[in-house]
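Please complete every field before forwarding. Incomplete forms are returned to the sender.

SECTION A: IDENTIFIERS
Entry label: holo-214
Bound molecule: glutathione
Molecule representation: SMILES string

SECTION B: INPUTS
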Amino acid sequence: MESSQLKLYVGADFVSAFAMSAFVALKEKQLPFDLVTIDLKARENYQADYQNLSMTCKIPTLVHQDFALSESSAIAEYLDDIATETRKLLPTDIRLRARARQLQAWLRSDLLIIRRERPADLIYFGKKEMPLSDEALVAVDRLFFVADRLLKGGADHLFGDWSIADTDLAIMLNRLLANGDHVPARLAAYVRRQWDRDSVRGWMDIERVAPVVQ
Ligand SMILES: N[C@@H](CCC(=O)N[C@@H](CS)C(=O)NCC(=O)O)C(=O)O
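SECTION C: PREDICTED COMPLEX
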């Protein structure tokens, strides 16, 4: 495919879990792309130019030639559709692919309390001293149950070969692990394996400026 016109719009702070997922997807597909930053604090994402691209005013947005697409999981599916010659981001087996989509949808629509109490920026800029609330602990238990059920004993990945759902799950688990919260050893090892991937290292290696604490 002709990928020279791929652009990925991400937040200028490079902390969004969704931007990371789209970035990792492009890297795993080995597609060259330009990274374009949007200053979310300056509300650049609400300016007309970006709204016209994204519709939703959210990052990430992928631009491919004259087509713009937001929503990180939709971006991964689109990349699999346009670049068939490189590694698949989602499993090829119909049921495993459905399961991967189930997990992706759940991670994006539920567990908001974990996202609130353990925001992704702590992965880069240090810990939150606040203990998890009782409500968050219930969500954490459910997260561990789902992860434990899907990650078969001894398996490196959720669905046989690596898939983008591995990155999405590892990001959610790393909100806890990076903060020093308890994560079962097997799941902690899984997160570290995911963090060892070149695609994830590529994201982690981006230079970030820590926010000024007021
Ligand atoms: N479900 C979307 C979530 C995207 C999202 O919430 N992006 C946040 C950054 S983490 C954003 O653009 N926030 C800016 C704003 O709402 O003003 C996805 O998976 O891409």
